[in-house]
Amino acid sequence: PLGTGTGGPGYNFDDEIVPDLTFDRPYLLAMANAGLRRGMDGKIHGTNGSQFFITTVPTEWLNGHHTIFGEVADDESKAVVDKLDAVATDRMDRPTEPVGIVSVEVLK
């Protein structure tokens, strides 16, 4: 990963869709991907790598297309996501000033 929204880990993996997990609420973490692709072996493969996104509204149209793997755990963290969502963006929907996630805590 290049830290620019491009690049990746050098490998891809298939979706791991769990039908009971749906994009019915905000603050879900899911894998970003480029859809399904036919590999050199002729089989259809997923394009998940290292990029992910956090929803800020329900996004049911994503059901079955992106692997949900977590959610924002508490109100303080949700407030951070809301601040990220509110930053000014250009016409390509990129932040006009650099923003980033400095640290995260993974809860089990």
Query: What class do helices, strands and sheet pairing give?
Result: alpha+beta
Q: What do the pLDDT scores average to? A: 90
Beta strand count: 5
Estimate the strand proportion: 5-15%
Strand order of the largest sheet: 4-1-5
The helix count comes to 1
Shape: globular
> What are the segments in which pLDDT stays under 50 over at least 5 consecutive residues?
none
List the SSEs and their pairings.
Layout: E1 28-31, E2 37-38, E3 44-45, E4 52-54, E5 68-71, H1 75-85
Antiparallel strand pairs: 1-4, 1-5, 2-3
What labels would you give this structure?
single chain; 108 residues; two-stranded antiparallel sheet; 14% strand
Describe this structure in words.
The protein is built from one helix and five strands; from the N terminus they run βββββα. It is α+β, with helices and mostly antiparallel strands and 108 residues long. The strands form two sheets. Strands 4-1-5 form a three-stranded antiparallel beta sheet, with no helix packed on it. Strands 2-3 form a two-stranded antiparallel sheet. A hairpin with a 5-residue loop joins β2 and β3. It is globular.
